[in-house]
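sry for the spam today, last one i promise. struct tokens for design, 379 residues
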């Protein structure tokens, strides 16, 4: 495995960094404060190729690999975790599911719109009473001639209100049957599909999280992704890639928090010298940097396997678990280094701190990652 950034990755890092400084940095605190989801920004990111990073060029995407994808998510998340989360969810969940499991007709219909940012995608697995235990989902789809009729709701869905299209997992078989769940592509204006409550969150406030409600929502059988009953197994594969996304999001937030703390520690004077001169602060910074480096190596390992079409369930769980816990730790230490100023909204440390916590929860909590890892190593 080669750890040096390719020319492509360096170019992407510089381009995304410039984009984030110009289009995200000036507004991210206002969006955070008002919980505004800046949809127009995602259209702009589409023009830059960021909305379909992994989508082949023939479907309107950038046709790049997981290393480039990691780079883009990291650079956006260094400035704003919310935008990083939405970008990651759009690319790896909805778009990724259609790319991986859609038939040619579905790919030609949806991928160009998603990859160019004309449409924003949502992906609905979680329900109010079934998060980690997704197999127990209650949302059902019953066949009626050439149609499937969906009833139920999905909660905590990124772009649940604003997404023009959603991949929805619904029960088509028996409870707890891993072959009893099917994935459907549902367009926003389909009768019987509406958005419910938008969550008022601790962090990631500019990333929209909302409920999706289905009431006798009729979906033509041509909108089924893959085979009937394959939805749960497809979802587990999608989450293998999704964990690389959340690990990258964690890395971006942690790197942003470290950069801010490094700068501040050199500027802030106490006892007649910069606080970075105190070994207690220097050692904190050293731990933060070491942990980030280790998390990045784990994430690169998973990305390498994914790029080569290899199974990466254990490695992506390693990366997601470790990087997200590192992210929370680094962001917490960041606030500590800023002292009282870290507790105010005048400095970025508090936002990194609030945003970081999602990383140990979304797309499988740390406890669930440990379950996945223990199952893999006990095989
Ligand atoms: C901002 C945000 C965006 C999200 N976006 C999406 C999205 O786009 N699409 C989507 O489908 N979902 C999305 N989710 C949902 C997310 O994936 C779930 O919140 C997550 O999987 C955890 O489920 P839960 O919240 O129901 O927690 P629960 O499953 O109720 O877990 C509660 C606690 O119990 C622990 N626990 C549960 N089961 C076990 C076990 N077997 N062993 C040990 N501990 C256990 C958990 O680790 C956790 O600490 C989003 C969530 C958030 C907060």
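last one done:
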């Amino acid at each position: 495995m080669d750890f040096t950034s390719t020319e492509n990755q360096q170019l992407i890092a510089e381009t995304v960094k410039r984009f984030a400084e110009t289009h995200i940095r000036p507004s991210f605190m206002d969006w955070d404060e008002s919980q505004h989801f800046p949809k127009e920004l995602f259209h702009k990111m589409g023009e830059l190729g960021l909305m379909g990073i992994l989508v082949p060029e023939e479907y309107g995407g950038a046709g790049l690999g997981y290393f480039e994808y990691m780079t883009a998510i990291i650079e956006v998340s260094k400035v704003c975790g919310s935008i990083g989360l939405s970008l990651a969810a759009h690319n790896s969940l909805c778009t990724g599911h259609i790319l991986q499991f859609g038939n040619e007709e579905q790919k030609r219909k949806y991928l160009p719109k998603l990859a160019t940012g004309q449409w924003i995608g949502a992906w609905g697995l979680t329900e109010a009473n079934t998060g980690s235990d997704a197999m127990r989902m209650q949302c059902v789809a019953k066949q009626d001639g050439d149609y499937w009729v969906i009833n139920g709701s999905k909660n905590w869905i990124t772009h649940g209100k604003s997404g023009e299209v959603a991949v929805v997992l619904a029960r088509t078989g028996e409870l707890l049957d891993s072959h009893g769940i099917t994935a459907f592509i549902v367009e926003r204006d389909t009768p019987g599909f509406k958005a419910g409550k938008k969550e008022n969150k601790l962090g990631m406030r500019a990333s929209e999280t909302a409920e999706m409600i289905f009431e006798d929502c009729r979906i033509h059988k041509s909108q089924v992704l893959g085979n009937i009953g394959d939805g749960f197994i497809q979802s587990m594969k999608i989450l293998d890639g999704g964990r690389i996304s959340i690990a990258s999001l964690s890395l971006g937030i942690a790197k942003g928090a470290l950069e801010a703390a490094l700068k501040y520690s050199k500027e802030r004077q106490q006892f007649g010298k910069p606080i970075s001169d105190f070994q207690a602060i220097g050692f904190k910074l050293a731990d933060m940097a070491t942990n980030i480096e280790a998390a990045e190596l784990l994430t690169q390992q998973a990305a390498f396997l994914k790029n080569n079409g290899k199974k990466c369930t254990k490695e992506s769980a390693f990366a997601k678990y470790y990087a997200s816990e590192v992210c929370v730790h680094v962001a917490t230490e960041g606030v500590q280094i800023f002292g009282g100023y870290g507790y105010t909204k005048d400095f970025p440390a508090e936002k990194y701190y609030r945003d970081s916590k999602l990383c140990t929860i979304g797309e499988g909590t740390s406890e669930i990652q440990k379950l996945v890892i223990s199952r893999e190593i006990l095989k």
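The chain has eleven helices and ten strands. ok im logging off now
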